[in-house]
């Protein structure tokens, strides 16, 4: 299998981007390519990469079109069987991350996407996995997961393209959850692979937390509107809208809340190009989020149909409240 390592950059800084590329170049997998996508950077990082690595694939976008759309654009230039998404401020610490991940995909044709353990670049503190199981201490195994971390992940290229990639209108936040629902509904799995590590410097800037909360609200609601079965979508939409209303009121951002609500109203009356996922897919995803379903995939093959039948519908009020408090 050939690997395509895709690095998306937006003003990541020359030194940081070059370190990310170096960790990709050191991978021992012989069949690999590196695709560097620049999202309209103005800090000189693109020029530094061009100067240092003229032999890699470089895609220069005129402006910042967001993380999901940027990765989708980069995927058009890939030719590998597996796309590895690596953060521009992240670096792999082992040289066999790609080769070992490839073995997982070769072993299990049902495996759709995985993400590695993420640790702080300087602190080495482990980022909490997306779901409650297996926990931060896990350093081995392969665990079924409701979603994945976009900048520390790998996905079958053919599957990614067939599903349409990430939603282009999600500027940031929740695009992995959206795509994971489609992956499960197509009969594939998503997994957490803590055996290998990506060190992440992280990024922060004034107003980031406000921006994140805005897009989490907007995109989580869009996900429900586009993909959830109608009966479940109306219940969850009401609960989420109410709780986010309280949050935005507390933060004195009511005008912004009304702006997002208007976007969502237009979404309701617009024709979606997405097919709604099955009830079983929703139960499976929610069951993993709430740790009602826990599975180490290395213990044997995963029967998604059997897992879905064991999953139970969630209480929208309790679960939405619990997740909003995180």
Share in β-strands: 15-25%
What is the mean predicted local confidence, pLDDT?
A: 90
Oligomer: single chain
Percent helix: 40-55%
Largest sheet: 9 strands, mixed
CATH topology of the domain at 3-200: Spore Coat Polysaccharide Biosynthesis Protein SpsA, Chain A
Based on Cα principal axes, name the global outline: globular
SS-derived structural category: alpha/beta
Question: Quick one: CATH superfamily of the domain at 3-200?
Answer: Spore Coat Polysaccharide Biosynthesis Protein SpsA, Chain A
Report on this structure.
The structure is a single chain. The chain has 326 residues and is an alpha/beta fold. The chain has a domain at 3-200: Spore Coat Polysaccharide Biosynthesis Protein SpsA, Chain A (Alpha-Beta Complex). The chain contains twelve helices and nine strands. It has helices at residues 14-25, 45-52, 67-75, 97-107, 157-162, 175-185, 208-227, 230-250, 254-268, 279-289, 304-310, 316-324, and strands spanning 3-9, 32-39, 57-61, 82-87, 90-92, 111-120, 143-144, 152-156, 189-200. Strands 1, 2, 3, 4, 5, 6, 7, 8 and 9 form a nine-stranded mixed sheet that branches. Helix 2 links the parallel strand 2 and strand 3. Helix 1 (14-25) packs parallel to helix 2 (45-52) and helix 10 (279-289) crosses helix 11 (304-310). It is globular and about 50 Å long. The two termini are 39 Å apart.
């Amino acid at each position: 299998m050939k690997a395509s390592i895709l690095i998306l950059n937006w003003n990541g800084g020359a030194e940081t981007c070059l370190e990310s590329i170096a960790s990709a170049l050191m991978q021992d997998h012989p069949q690999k390519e590196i695709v560097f996508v620049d999202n309209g950077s103005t800090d000189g990082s693109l020029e530094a990469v061009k100067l240092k690595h003229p032999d890699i694939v470089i895609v220069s976008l005129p402006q910042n079109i967001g993380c999901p759309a940027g990765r989708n654009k980069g995927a058009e230039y890939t030719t590998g069987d597996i796309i590895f998404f690596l953060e521009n401020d992240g670096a792999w610490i082992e040289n066999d991350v790609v080769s070992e991940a490839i073995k997982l995909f070769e072993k299990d044709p049902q495996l759709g996407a995985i993400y590695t353990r993420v640790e702080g670049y300087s602190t080495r503190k482990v980022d909490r996995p997306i779901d409650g199981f297996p926990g931060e201490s896990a350093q081995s195994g392969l665990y079924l997961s409701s979603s994945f971390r976009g900048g520390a992940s790998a996905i079958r290229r053919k599957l990614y393209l067939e599903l349409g990639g990430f939603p282009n209108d999600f500027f940031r936040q929740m695009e992995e959850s959206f795509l994971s629902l489609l992956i499960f509904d197509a009969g594939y799995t998503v997994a957490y692979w803590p055996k290998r590590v990506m060190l992440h410097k992280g990024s922060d800037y004034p107003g980031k937390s406000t921006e994140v909360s805005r897009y989490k609200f907007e995109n989580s609601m869009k996900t429900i509107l586009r993909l959830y079965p109608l009966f479940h979508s109306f219940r969850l939409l009401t609960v989420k809208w109410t709780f986010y209303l309280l949050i935005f009121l507390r933060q004195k951002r009511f005008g912004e809340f009304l702006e997002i609500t208007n976007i969502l109203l237009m979404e309701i009356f617009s024709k979606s190009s997405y097919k709604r996922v099955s009830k079983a897919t929703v139960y499976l995803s929610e069951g993993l989020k709430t740790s009602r379903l826990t599975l180490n995939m290395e213990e044997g093959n995963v029967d998604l149909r059997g897992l879905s039948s064991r999953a139970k519908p969630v209480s929208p009020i309790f679960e939405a409240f619990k997740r909003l408090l995180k």
